Amino acid sequence: MAVAVEEVAVRLPDPALNGADWADAYEAETARPFPTARAAAEAMVRAFPAWTMPLLLLRNLVVLPLGLKGADRVPGREMVGIFPVVSETSSRFVGGFDDRHLDFRVIVQLSPAGPERQRIKLTTVIRRHNLAGRAYLAAVMPFHRAIIRGALRRLVAPSA
Predict the structure, then answer these.
(1) Mean pLDDT of the 30-55 span
(2) How many CB atoms lie within 10 A of CB 23?
(3) How many other CB atoms are found less than 10 A from the CB of residue 53?
(4) Does residue 28 belong to any structural domain of this protein?
(5) Residue 75 belongs to what domain range?
(6) Is 44 in contact with 152 (CB distance < 8 Å)?
(7) Given strand 102-112, what is the order of strands in its sheet?
(8) Number of structural domains in the chain
(9) Omega within 30 of 0 (cis) for the link into 13
(10) Bridge-partner residues for 80, per DSSP?
(11) Are 120 and 110 in contact (CB under 8 A)?
């Protein structure tokens, strides 16, 4: 049975990132509810496609000479997978960081969807600072969509 992952509208501004000028969001329903948004975020990172990590390593090598941060270069911050923790409640997890070209936040939000069911919404919110931020976002967008949709689909799929 195919798992439905829906792209949903996002309203800006979002309290997770003042001044954000771009956002997208995807939502799915699961019959295996998570106890907290952090638990869902941790599971989401584990559900990323296998090709994500080599691509992220390549990205880090390419941007390092440009002075941009890599996912592993946020000293002193608690991490969930590749995302530094910005804030969290039981129903909303926010990760991300600020950089020279753009600032981003990834938001995992849980809401009830009926008895024994839960909606998981994954929102990405970005504030682009300059032309480099706009170019970077355009370059990574096809990968971003594939990663997010695939991870969310695997996250809510019924166990085999």
Answers:
(1) 89
(2) 21
(3) 12
(4) yes
(5) 6-156
(6) yes
(7) 6-8, 22-30, 118-128, 102-112, 92-98, 83-88, 79-80
(8) 1
(9) yes
(10) 83
(11) yes
